[in-house]
Amino acid sequence: MFDYKKYKRQYFMPPEVCLDWAKKDHVEKAPIWCSVDLRDGNQALVIPMNLEQKVMFFQLLCEIGFKEIEIGFPAASETEFELCRTLIERNLIPDDVTIQVLTQAREHIIRKTFEAIKGAKHAIVHVYNSTSFAQRQQVFRKSKEDIKKIAVDGAELLKELAATAGQDLRFEYSPESFTGTEPEFALEVVNAVLDAWQPTEDHKPIINLPVTVELAEPHVFAQQIEYMCRHMKYRSNVIVSLHPHNDRGSGVADTELGLLAGADRVEGTLFGNGERTGNVDVVTLAMNLYAQGVDPELDFSNMPAICERYEEYTGMQIGERSPYAGALVFAAFSGSHQDAIAKGMKWIDEKDPNHWTVPYLPINPQDVGRNYDSDVIRINSQSGKGGVGYILETKFGLMLPKKMKEAMGYAAKDVSDRKHAELSPDEIFEIFKENFEDLSEPIDIRDVHFEQKDGITARVTSVNDGKEVTTVAVGNGRLDAVSNALKKEYGLDYDLDTYTEHALEKSSSSRAIAYVGLKWPDGKMTWGAGLDPDIIRASIDALVTAVNNR
Questions:
Q1: Can you give 426-452 as a three-state secondary structure string?
Q2: If pLDDT is split at 50, 70 and 90, which confidence band does 2 have?
Q3: Using CA atoms, how far apart are residues 246 and 252, in angstroms rounded to an integer?
Q4: Do residues 482 and 464 lie in contact, with contact meaning Cβ atoms separated by under 8 Å?
Q5: What average pLDDT score do residues 431-435 get?
Q6: At 237, phi and psi to the nearest 5?
Q7: Is the peptide bond preceding residue 442 cis, with omega within 30 degrees of 0?
Q8: Most buried of 5, 73, 391, 497, CB within 10 angstroms?
Q9: Phi and psi at residue 232, in whole multiples of 5°?
Q10: Rounded to an integer, what distance in angstroms lies between the CA atom of residue 530 and that of residue 527?
Q11: In percent, how much of the chain has pLDDT > 90?
């Protein structure tokens, strides 16, 4: 059994109630995004990216629309120092993109960091030290005053070096392990750093409040952020940033509630790669905004290509059920889901509403580069008539009668069940042809002549088991006359329950397809389809197939 009694809460609630965030129902605008894929994400890889991969990843991030990109910890690694210098010296940083570099609040590391960014047009120097109760007690064994002094000394050195650097430099400070720090002490440290920097409207520093380890429910984090925003000095001239990790699986929720609580900026990674259970997933955050009608200011319109490049550079695999990006996130195998989606799509086409409202699809899959026939309606043994009918209509132009869709659904389900496999659209089409199109055994009609006499008289030449016969019958139409001939010759008893037809292609040489449903005395329905440029011939072939399916 788990010994749960050895654990206790490691977080600290603010000293006052902070619930204004709970009165808001959604995030109204996109935050400032900062990708930390090349630093936090890269250090979590089993095999870190090489220089070429990092450069290509940086370019991908720029294409997506990130304007702030943390490229590494240049003073801690020669590889990361080399990346920084490569981006600067090869002029690979777009003018509207700011690189960010991380440094501990230690003098020699800070000085080395300034060497790394020399020549960069725009850069953020991100300094940090841990402030949490556990780290103060166990790792550093220092007092609160000692910890605050480390932060302030680092902040003052940044300001001193920036004054002579001759560059557009901005500052960022993180009280690392913020979620394990008493909120009053975190505020004290942050305000001391801000006093050293003296923020102005033209030069706003970033205060980053990281969920270095996720310790509490998201509503606790939201209260911590609201408390900081309420009491932070120079608040109007400070950018409050979030950097959530995902230890409890609530990184996205932490971030969304933190934004409601007053934060302005988010640091995260594509698809949530990062230490332990990962950083917050920027793709999910951005697409959540998009799904609520908010411009995410990042472009994920070609998600499959982004996924492919990400996997190539990092060696990571994106889960099939990863929100918005996974190969199966829009896939519907369930028959009831497929039916609802197909009807919803038809409603959208007919009504052309201003807003997307299709059941089971929070966004239009095409918005992220997915296709309906290959990514949404997926057919296996759990699927039903709605999905099969949708595939046949959208991919092959077949508009089956409602009752025939059910028969086709069972036919596809049976094949998938026997194969223990998903069926492709082409396989579904083959099942349709094999079961319902132009079946000529045991009965086949070789020739038909019509005469306008006593209604319509049909002279039908048919073959059954190799024996050819000609039968004459009368009907109230051509198909009825042929049907009466078959009944007369072979002693058949059925009612022509359903008949529909439509052109398969819109042109002067288009073929027609006809569908026939026969109801037999025992209640069984059989179906057939016929395809021919001549609608009469198509109807006859459909009738014969329905008869042969008895």
A1: HHHHHHHHHHHECCCCCEEEEEEEEEC
A2: confident
A3: 8
A4: no
A5: 95
A6: -110, 20
A7: yes
A8: 391
A9: -70, 135
A10: 10
A11: 79
